[in-house]
Amino acid sequence: MKVLRTPEAAFEGVTDYPFAPHYLDVTDALSSANLRVHYIDEGPRDAPVVLMMHGEPSWSYLYRKMVAPVVAAGFRVVAPDLIGFGKSDKPAAQSDYSYARHVAWMRSWVEQLDLQNVTLACQDWGSLVGLRLVAEMPDRFAGVALSNGGLPEGGDAPRAFAIWRAFSKWSPVFPIGKIVSAGTKRGLSPEEIAAYDAPFPNSSFKAGARIFPSFVPFENNVAVPDQKRAWQVFDTWEKPFLCCFSDQDRITRGGESRFIGRVPGTSGQNHRSLHGGHFIQEDDPEGFVACILEVARA
């Protein structure tokens, strides 16, 4: 496995990300390669944990406006960069990525940090990976705040997602920062767009970002059996599970209906719509923080 690491100099222009870097190595079971995971770790180490998981093609920068308010409320916030994104290592070949590998890499990271009493805050691929972690290690998790994500287990892909999947696979250009900006309603500044571009100095760093959409388990995807096993856990999950999807996301609109009423922990929760597009952390960070704290304090 050839592994790329974005030079730290690439992030020098990112001025609104005031977090000390933390790193931890995970070992890939198939290749025995060591992969370095970067993560934010703010707040008291003995406080209840809020795990903020980003999706594709973003990185922990996505949560920069949400970390401080949650820490101020008395929690420890950890926010990793998935392998292939942000300041984490990036396998150079698309064939080195899979959904199962991502779950295994992040499970190793959680276990090495020995995270307990965790509230998962997740969106996009942060939910596909994060919810699988909850299902595999339910005793470590105390609740879930889910926005604009899901846990697909087959079936047809929504048209908007199918278009995105084809674009990510075939488009000759893949402008990460502009893609994230297009997924917001407020639009991003040139500096913010540059921050999302920073982890990817050239196209060779984008293998993970390119291949991720093809892993979403619609149709007869290889991950469907794993998803169904995860759903067996959530079909009996009684801890708090709050859905706070945004009102203007074409890709995940209506996705909360797959959870509310099916997951026992959704009963009695104040499910609500947030205002914005797919990347709700950019459009309504305050609303998402309020949802997270509601679950974490339950």
Task: Sum this structure up briefly.
This protein is α/β, with parallel strands linked by helices and 298 residues long.
Structure overview:
With 298 residues, the protein is α/β, with parallel strands linked by helices. It is 32% helix and 15% strand. The chain is built from ten helices and nine strands. It has a seven-stranded mixed sheet, with helices on both faces. A hairpin with a 6-residue loop joins β2 and β3. α2 packs across α3, α3 (125-136) packs across α8 (224-234) and α5 packs across α6. The longest helix has 15 residues, at 99-113. The protein starts with a strand and ends with a helix. The model has no long low-confidence stretch (mean pLDDT 97).
Structural class of the helix and strand makeup?
alpha/beta
Shape: globular
Strand portion: 15-25%
Distance between the termini: 43 Å
Biggest sheet strand line-up: 2-3-5-4-7-8-9
- How large is the radius of gyration? 17 Å
- What's the average pLDDT? 97
| Sequence of secondary-structure elements | EEEEHEEHEHEHHHHHEHH
Number of helices: 10
The low-confidence parts are none
**Could you tell me the number of beta strands?**
9
Largest sheet: 7 strands, mixed
Share of helical residues = 25-40%
